[in-house]
Write a structure and sequence with these properties.
Elements: E1 4-8, H1 15-22, E2 27-30, H2 36-43, E3 52-58, H3 62-65, H4 70-76, E4 82-86, H5 95-100, E5 104-106, H6 113-129, H7 131-139, H8 148-151, E6 159-163, H9 167-176, E7 182-186, E8 198-200, H10 204-208, E9 213-216, H11 230-235, E10 240-244, H12 253-261, E11 265-270, E12 290-291, H13 300-320
Parallel strand pairs: 1-2, 1-3, 3-4, 4-5, 6-7, 6-9, 7-8, 9-10, 10-11, 11-12
Length: 331
């Protein structure tokens, strides 16, 4: 029998690629459930989704069926052996449950690097030069805020620290280097391929003490939730800036807001939040912060690459037994 795979979430740009990748290899079934209960019923024996051996997953599916938690993973487990997730972050999938049930998970590293790093660079420039604050002032008919010179700095006078020099962090370093910023980084291990101008700090607190802008690029896991908390925030130089394009829960939001209130942080640039799409209204009280609605990969070029990469991982599982982008917890 031809194997069956399930598309769970949106395919926006890669419809032709779906046909090309799976023609003659698998029957592709589109998830059309509007509720979690209907989805679980469809996964039951003899349900319309039964017998699937692989799943393509996009976060938009959570709007209808919720995250892939233990309940959903257990329902997939009798037959599904691979979940090809579209996205670099995969915190909406219970990876531990997948491991228990023998389901492997892939993501889409690399496909998101340029778009997310570009977003981080914008947040750095906006908070350093107060571009977002100034634009809002212009739109309100008040021209530019008189406080801008006292709040602004040229990038060439600032030290940028990158927390997590993976694909996105490395791309940001490449973008920031021509601006003549001093660039530091901390990762679990020194990155052998890092250029010599990218300085490694084994001791993260030593790095924070000389940092003007901290840009966060670590995945959200149990060990990274609240990683940037009170202690690390207070280790930063007074007047420092935090930029986050990773996941909102990597930062202790309350500690960050306290540091904004007492002036230890001069600004933050955020594209991610702990309880999206809800944004803490206290953040809106700070005119000098730059806030984006999680749009790091919101462009058609990156989204096409992500869709194709996730679909290719699923196709490679069917043809070769494994995709190329198995998540680190399963290597």
């Amino acid at each position: 029998m031809v194997p069956r795979v399930l598309i769970c979430g949106d395919i926006v740009w890669a419809h032709d690629e779906v046909r090309q990748l799976f023609s003659g290899i698998a029957d592709v079934i589109l998830m059309d459930s509007q509720t979690r209960a209907d989805f679980l019923q469809g996964l039951a024996p003899n349900g319309r989704y039964s017998g699937m051996i692989g799943v393509y997953r996009h976060n938009t599916s959570a709007d209808f069926v919720g995250v892939f938690d233990e309940e959903i993973i257990a329902s997939l487990a009798p037959t599904v052996k691979w979940i090809a997730h579209n996205g670099a972050g995969y915190d909406q999938i219970d990876v531990a449950a997948c491991k228990r049930h023998g389901i492997r998970v892939s993501n889409t590293p690399g496909a998101v690097d340029e778009a997310t790093a570009t977003t981080a660079l914008y947040l750095i420039l906006s908070t350093l030069r107060q571009y977002s604050f100034s634009e809002r002032s212009l739109r309100a008919g008040t021209w530019k805020p008189p406080t801008v010179p006292a709040l602004s700095h040229d990038p060439s006078t600032r030290t940028l620290a990158i927390l997590g020099l993976g694909g996105i962090g490395s791309r940001l370093a490449e973008f920031a280097h021509p601006l003549r910023m001093r660039i530091l980084y901390h990762s679990r291990h020194k990155v052998q391929s890092a250029p010599e101008w990218c300085e490694y700090f084994e001791d993260v607190e030593e790095m924070l003490a000389i940092t003007d802008i901290l840009s966060i690029h670590v995945p959200l896991r149990a060990d990274t939730e609240g990683l940037v908390g009170e202690r690390w925030i207070r280790k930063l130089k007074k007047g420092a800036i935090i930029v986050n394009t990773a996941r909102g829960k990597v930062i202790d939001e309350e500690a960050m807001i306290r540091a904004l209130e007492d002036g230890h942080l001069s600004s933050v640039g955020l594209d991610v939040y702990p309880n999206e799409p809800n944004v803490n209204p206290r953040l809106l009280e700070f005119p000098t912060v730059t806030l984006l609605p999680h749009m790091g990969t919101e462009n058609q070029d990156s989204q096409r690459r992500m869709e194709v990469r996730a679909l290719t991982n699923l196709r490679d599982f069917l043809v070769k037994g494994a995709g190329s982008d198995l998540i680190p917890e399963m290597r």
